[in-house]
């Protein structure tokens, strides 16, 4: 009986342990999945709002350019001269307001406005209509400096606008942007824009007003959301009051803000948070707020990406239920089996003990031997089932780990794309600054102070370029361009690509050993190691020496320098990204080296006493 109770206790403890382990693994995996999903969608939201701001800025520039046309300026100048001869302009405007119906069928007032201006504005509207395939501008008209309408290309308007708030604000500030509204006349959502018009002497001469459809401002945004919208994920666009502008793949305004808008207001410009959901286990809200683009200050809108429980998390839920079910069954089986064991089955129990020991060591292939006692056979079968369940559990945890790694890789890939884009965008203007500095240096040969400033500029530019190249080399993974090359030539080419200080001596041996490799990528590896060695030596006299030897089908390259040892707390993880002992380093150089060497199916290690980097490469990649 004691043996039975002991077996019951042991089996119950095993089942309970695996239950707790499975549940903890499940919770950790789900939490990590939420972090990865939220961060990935956060990146999507940021790109969407940035592209939207850029698109709106381009459209506003197009509209504002209309104010600079010679025809508009000439017509307004003539109109203002006519009004200057009127003694009581206010009374005149009131009289005309009652007499004139200013519509598309009566778009200009003879003697004050110009038919050519109206025709030109109509052609502009038709151009936008042809380009987008729908109405872009619902209303477009021009007033003179006194608020009187000079030309109306489309829509309906009063003759005098000087008493309107938008007109007064535009005259005072030079620009007016209205709120989104649904216009009953046009059955469409639109925004009002108005711009002051000035002559060549910057004198105010009138105002151009447009009623622009929301469709044209969100044209590119809608197309981009088509690529992101999948089952379980939706893209929203909110205005600065939290009201939905775009949802469910269509433009539509609600009367009240979304319920989680206060959380968006309290957060940063970009972020994500989790909401409880009655239907799904959770709902992730990733968002990014408009911060403007160049001259466009932004509307303060929010792009929100809602993500409910993904298929991956649902699979985790199924696995959790399987773990609980299997564990409960195991507990029940252990209790029933234990009570069925009698005291006269010592020998079969010993065999079961041996089987249990094998399972605990990870051997799940062992099988119980048939016994004449039914109780022993039942317990033996329970052991076989438990072994299968444990195999399934281990396989499941392995799949969970692989899924976790996959999600992390997707996150790193998204970060890599953003980093590469930022590095590329910095590099182009940096090249312009470099060229400008070189031109200044050529034209200031006798100005010692200016030459010193330019030299500091060049050093700073080189530092930034080096760090940008570190980022690009780390995030950019391209196929190998394999060529046969001498290792000595490869190292010599890398040495020639950098500036060697006078205090550093270099030793490169002559070797006939050749390898199949990507020359440009391996040059990056050697350049990084040489630069690190030069920086470690500083201003002290020192040496950098290389050795090359062949062992079987591999080449072993050792690069040694006489500088100080690498700190022990850095040496153990020196090839990990963002690890550096230099104040101005990016921490990506040696990590990039490791990636390149591994892409060549080789290895790279570092050691102290003396400081030495050891690179092992196969002679052929076949």
From TrEMBL:
GO function terms (MF aspect): ATP binding; phosphorelay sensor kinase activity
Among CDD domains, the record links this protein to: HAMP, HisKA, PDC1_HK_sensor
Q: Which SMART domains match?
A: HAMP, HATPase_c, HisKA
> Key word Transmembrane present in the record?
yes
Ranges for domain Histidine kinase: 421-621
Q: What is its EC number?
A: 2.7.13.3
InterPro entries membership: HAMP_dom, HATPase_C_sf, HATPase_dom, His_kinase_dom, HisK_dim/P_dom, HisK_dim/P_sf, HssS/ArlS-like, Sig_transdc_His_kin-like_C
EC class: transferase
Domain (HAMP): give its ranges. 343-395
Q: A cellular component term (GO) from this record?
A: plasma membrane
> Its membrane topology, per UniProt?
Multi-pass membrane protein
Please give the catalytic activity noted in the UniProt record.
Answer: ATP + protein L-histidine = ADP + protein N-phospho-L-histidine
User: Which SUPFAM superfamilies does the record cross-reference, listed alphabetically?
Assistant: ATPase domain of HSP90 chaperone/DNA topoisomerase II/histidine kinase (SSF55874), HAMP domain-like (SSF158472), Homodimeric domain of signal transducing histidine kinase (SSF47384)
Its primary localisation, in coarse terms, equals membrane
Q: Which domain of life is it from?
A: Archaea
Entry keywords, A to Z: ATP-binding, Cell membrane, Kinase, Membrane, Nucleotide-binding, Phosphoprotein, Transferase, Transmembrane, Transmembrane helix, Two-component regulatory system
Pfam families referenced in this protein's UniProt entry, alphabetically? HAMP (PF00672), HATPase_c (PF02518), HisKA (PF00512)
Q: Where is the protein localized?
A: Cell membrane
Which PROSITE patterns is this protein grouped with? Answer: HAMP, HIS_KIN
Keyword Membrane assigned to the entry: answer is yes
Q: What is this protein called?
A: histidine kinase
């Amino acid at each position: 009986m004691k043996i039975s109770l002991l077996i019951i206790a042991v089996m119950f403890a095993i089942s309970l342990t695996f239950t707790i382990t499975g549940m903890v693994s499940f919770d950790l995996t789900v939490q990590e999945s939420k972090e990865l999903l939220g961060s990935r969608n956060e990146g999507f939201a940021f790109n969407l709002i940035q592209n939207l701001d850029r698109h709106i800025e381009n459209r506003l520039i197009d509209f504002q350019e209309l104010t600079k046309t010679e025809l508009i300026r000439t017509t307004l100048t003539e109109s203002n001269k006519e009004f200057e001869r009127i003694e009581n302009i206010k009374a005149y405007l009131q009289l005309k307001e009652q007499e004139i119906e200013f519509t598309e069928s009566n778009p200009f007032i003879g003697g004050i406005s110009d038919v050519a201006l109206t025709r030109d504005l109509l052609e502009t509207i038709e151009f936008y209509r042809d380009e987008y395939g729908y109405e872009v501008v619902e209303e477009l008209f021009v007033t003179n400096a006194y608020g009187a309408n000079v030309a109306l290309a489309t829509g309906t308007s009063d003759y005098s606008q000087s008493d309107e708030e938008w007109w007064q604000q535009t005259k005072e500030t030079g620009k007016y942007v209205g709120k989104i509204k649904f216009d009953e006349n046009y059955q469409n959502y639109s925004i009002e824009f108005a711009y002051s018009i000035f002559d060549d002497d910057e004198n105010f001469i009138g105002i151009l007003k447009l009623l622009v459809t929301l469709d044209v401002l969100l044209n590119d945004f809608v197309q981009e959301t088509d690529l992101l919208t999948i089952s379980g994920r939706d893209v929203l666009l909110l205005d600065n009051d939290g009201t939905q502008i775009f949802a469910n793949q269509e433009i539509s305004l609600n009367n009240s803000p979304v319920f989680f808008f206060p959380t968006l207001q309290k957060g940063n410009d970009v972020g994500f948070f989790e909401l409880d959901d009655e239907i799904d286990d959770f709902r992730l809200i990733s968002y990014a707020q408009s911060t403007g683009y160049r001259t466009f200050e932004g509307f303060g809108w929010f792009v929100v990406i809602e993500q409910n429980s993904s298929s991956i998390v649902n699979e985790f839920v199924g696995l959790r239920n399987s773990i609980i079910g299997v564990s409960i069954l195991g507990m029940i089986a252990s209790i029933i089996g234990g009570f069925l064991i009698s005291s006269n089955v010592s020998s079969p129990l010993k065999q079961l003990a041996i089987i249990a020991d094998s399972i605990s060591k990870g051997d799940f292939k062992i099988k119980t031997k048939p016994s004449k006692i039914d109780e022993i056979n039942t317990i033996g079968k329970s052991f076989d089932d438990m072994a299968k369940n444990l195999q399934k559990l281990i396989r499941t945890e392995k799949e969970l780990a692989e899924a976790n790694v996959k999600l992390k890789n997707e996150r790193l890939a998204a970060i890599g794309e953003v980093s590469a884009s930022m590095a590329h965008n910095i590099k182009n203007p940096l090249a312009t600054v470099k060229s400008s500095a070189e031109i200044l240096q050529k034209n200031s040969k006798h100005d010692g102070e200016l030459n010193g400033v330019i030299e500091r500029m060049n050093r700073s530019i080189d530092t930034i370029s080096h760090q940008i190249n570190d980022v690009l080399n780390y995030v950019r993974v391209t196929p190998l361009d394999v060529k046969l090359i001498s290792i000595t030539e490869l190292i010599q080419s890398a040495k020639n690509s950098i500036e060697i200080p006078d205090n550093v001596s270099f030793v490169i041996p002559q070797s006939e050993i050749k390898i199949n490799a990507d020359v440009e990528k391996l040059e990056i590896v050697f350049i990084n190691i040489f630069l690190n060695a030069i920086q470690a030596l500083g201003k002290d006299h020192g040496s950098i020496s290389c050795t090359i030897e062949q062992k079987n089908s591999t080449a072993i390259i050792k690069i040694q320098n006489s500088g100080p040892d690498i700190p022990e707390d850095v040496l153990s993880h020196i090839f990990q990204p963002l690890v550096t002992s230099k104040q101005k380093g990016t921490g990506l150089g040696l990590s990039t080296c490791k990636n390149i060497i591994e892409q060549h199916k080789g290895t790279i290690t570092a050691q102290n006493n003396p400081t030495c980097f050891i690179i092992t490469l196969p002679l052929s990649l076949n």
